[in-house]
Every structure is written in structure tokens, then in C-alpha cells.
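Q: How would the C-alpha cells look for this protein?
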Amino acid sequence: MKSLKWLPVLAFAGILLTGCASLAYVEKDSSVNLANYKTYAWVETKEEMKADSAKTRPSQLTLQNIHNAVNAELSKVGWREVRNNPDVLLSSDVLVEKSTREQNDPVYSQPYTRYFFNPYTRRYIPIYYPSEFLGYDRNEYSVREATVTISMLDAKTDKMIWQGWTTDEVNSKNLTSKEIQSTIKSIFRKFDVAKK
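A: Here is the predicted structure in C-alpha cell form.
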């Protein structure tokens, strides 16, 4: 019975932690049953292999951290990484770009009280003026946004079977390991091999 009184506190903490996670999106081939796949291998995409001056490539450490985080999530559903004859080919893509955000803060006047002299009663009467909405204080600031995409292809048909991605603010050009863990967990919350 004592443990039941902690239940609302734990539920509230869970809601807070879930609310802090970035929003993930998933596209899946509805004709594919993911339960039929058990093995996978990582491949480099054409975008990763070519040197593009407009796009900054993520560091090798960032890619390795993404692969490790995805490997940990896939091992939870019983998938394992192999070198030969995988069922699925995995690729990852990271895009970090500058963006601007606008913050609108409401502005209100200060409430005040004025005193007027009433000659009939020979007293001062207080009149309260509440605060009024004056408009918005708009501020623009630049942020860095990282989009992480995980793609799965059927190794036999080269057909895209699943893709998940999310976009979130980051502090630098490269994602930290903590940001990577959070991002990959957000994406793989929507990865369910039991669904057809």
C-alpha cells in the first residue's frame, strides 16, 4: 500500500520525460511484415560517400554513436547485426543546419490606482486601472537543428520498408552522445515488429 502513494509521482515524472523527447515520424511499407526480418547490416548511402561542400558531413564519432544507439534498440526486438546475407540494409543520415526561431512574449501595462477628489462627499475616491494587453514583444534568434534519419531496405529487393526521422535543436555542429541517445529512442518508440 505504501508503494501506491508514489504511483502519481512516477506517472507525472514519466509524462515530463516523454514530453521532453523530440517528435519522431515514421513511414512504413504496409505490405511488409517486420516480424519476418531478424538480421541487418549497415551500409553507406551515396550522400555519405560523396563530398558535398554545401553539406557538412557528420563526424565519424557521431555516426558511430548513432549506429551503437540503433544497434541497442534493435537488439531489444531480437534483431542482430551480421556481415553476410542480412535481411535488412540500414543507413543513417544526419543534417545539421541553421534556422531561425521567433519568440513572441505578450506585453501588458502596469496596473495602477488613481485618486480623484469628489467635491460632493469631500473625499478622495480610488479608481483602479487593471493592466491592459499592449501587444507582443517579438524576438528572433538563430538555432541549430539536427535531423536524424534511419532507413531500412529489404536486402533482397532493395525496396525501402521503413524510415524514421526526427528534428530537434542541438548545441553544436555535431550531436552529443546524449542527444543521439534521445533522438534514436524517440524514433524507435514507433518501431514495432509485431505490427503488420
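The beta strands are 24-28, 39-42, 80-81, 88-108, 112-118, 123-129, 133-154, 160-170.

Confidence is low (pLDDT under 50) at residues 15-19.

Upvote if useful.
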